[in-house]
Prior knowledge:
The chain is an all-alpha fold.
Amino acid sequence: MLLSLGVSLIINHHLSLHFYDMICVFGPIYAWWLFAFECFNGMMEKVKHNGHDGGQMEVTLLCNWVQMQLIYELLLSLPANAHE
């Protein structure tokens, strides 16, 4: 219906059209919605893996994750006036 009006939709708009049925079948949204975990898919897509296969991509993803965690911990450990 909206498409016939020339309204452009993204996937979240489409998914929202199914909420009523999904709530009736599966219960409250917070019990089954995995958006928080799906956000990591975008982060993982951005990791450069140079087309490696045979398990090397997993190692690359792990190294990237560890690197990001170390940077995060470093930022947390900086004093409040570190930018000065």
